[in-house]
Design brief:
This protein has 127 residues and is mostly helical. Helix content is 65%, strand content 0%. It contains four helices and no strands. Helix 2 runs parallel beside helix 4 (94-118) and helix 3 runs antiparallel to helix 4 (94-118).
Amino acid sequence: MTPTTLTRRSGTADGTEPGAPAGTSTAGTSTAGTPGAAGSVRSSRSTRSSRDADALAVASFVLGLVGLLVMNILLGPAAIVMAVVALARSTARRGRALLGLTLGVADLVVLAFLVTGNGAVGWSFSG
């Protein structure tokens, strides 16, 4: 509920309580149990969620990039999951999340080529 809704329910247009002395207004004041406080909690949660989604997008990019060189069997799927979660939470770093998703898939493709070439999950640069 907005302050305008609250003032409409109280029956006055200026936000004063019926029967309250002139010059005292209750519109805009809020305590822990009123809808105004819930709105501020909701905005802080959405800010935190946005920062978390941005952090997930960056982490997926980094894990996908590192996964091309080492431990791609673990880092590839982790990058994919983090990128999908970041995109689901509508991150501001959408490009970075998509790049992390692409690198995670590339990790698994590199792993598939190396496994078919060596015939084992373990691989090394020495050949």
